[in-house]
């Protein structure tokens, strides 16, 4: 059961595995006794088994390894358990969306819109196009403003104006999404009249939410660049603006791209501001500067809240839209990692 070297005794891996199997067996036995219908919840059995395993391994470690190692093993187990508990909602969410979304994850769903569709059939092509266009426009607005603002705060920001900009960024970070939608609606109503709905207005609303996230994330990444690199470049007579362009930004490019992708993921799933300013439609609209435009979050909301006689068809479309949104975010994150690796300076690992 143990391996002893002088005063240093430790539980063998086989012993720990045996205790883990015992915990799971006891958990299954308890579940079998408590439920007579033969139906079990695998996640509940696993969590209970982990708890029983902890109750078994802690006293065993205390007896064999001593107080110090037992406490260390206990704390390590608690950390891993907390990590596992934090993963449970994420894994459950992804698994639920994946399993339920596959029912309509087909060619028709991605090749057609909802125009003249009642009940089963139809697709979300118009929503996918709208999501990509509005998010792209919001990124084109937010990334230059956010990146330049973060460069100013890190490299040039001194005095009251810098403090004022920092305060405004902090305030914008906490703005509710529906307030951003109302702001964009009020602004566009001044120029185009009341009741205006267009994709570009939705992009402006999303940029209000996206800019502070870009500023904060890029600012932190730029501050991580060692000052020695700046000083070495300036000592060679390189102007400050060129030092920022050729030294600071390339060094932090991986973190900058990651921060930008976090900002995009923050806004791509927003529903409230797009309902207000972009509206929704069942037809294709490729022009973000004219008429209403559908997006995936609004498509999911509309499908789930406006169920017809064949309710299951609407629910299936809603889950498929949610799965599509998750896939888009995952693809964007994968692309961001590839870009950060490609443009990472040589020797910067």
UniProtKB/TrEMBL annotation:
Keyword annotations: Cell membrane, Membrane, Phosphate transport, Transmembrane, Transmembrane helix, Transport
Entry annotated with the keyword Isomerase: no
Locations listed in the record: Cell membrane
Primary location recorded for the protein, binned into one broad class: membrane
Domain (ABC transmembrane type-1) ranges: 128-336
Cited PANTHER family: PHOSPHATE TRANSPORT SYSTEM PERMEASE PROTEIN PSTA (PTHR42922)
Protein family (similarity comment): Belongs to the binding-protein-dependent transport system permease family. CysTW subfamily.
A GO molecular-function annotation: phosphate transmembrane transporter activity
Transmembrane spans: 12-34, 40-65, 77-103, 123-154, 198-215, 247-268, 318-336
UniProt cross-references to InterPro entries, sorted A to Z: MetI-like, MetI-like_sf, Phosphate_PstA, Phosphate_transprt_permease
Organism: freshwater metagenome
Keyword Iron: no
One of the GO BP terms on file: phosphate ion transmembrane transport
Entry GO CC: plasma membrane
Bilayer topology term: Multi-pass membrane protein
This protein's name: Unannotated protein
Alphabetical list of Pfam families matching this protein: BPD_transp_1 (PF00528)
Gene3D superfamilies according to UniProt: MetI-like
UniProt-listed PROSITE patterns: ABC_TM1
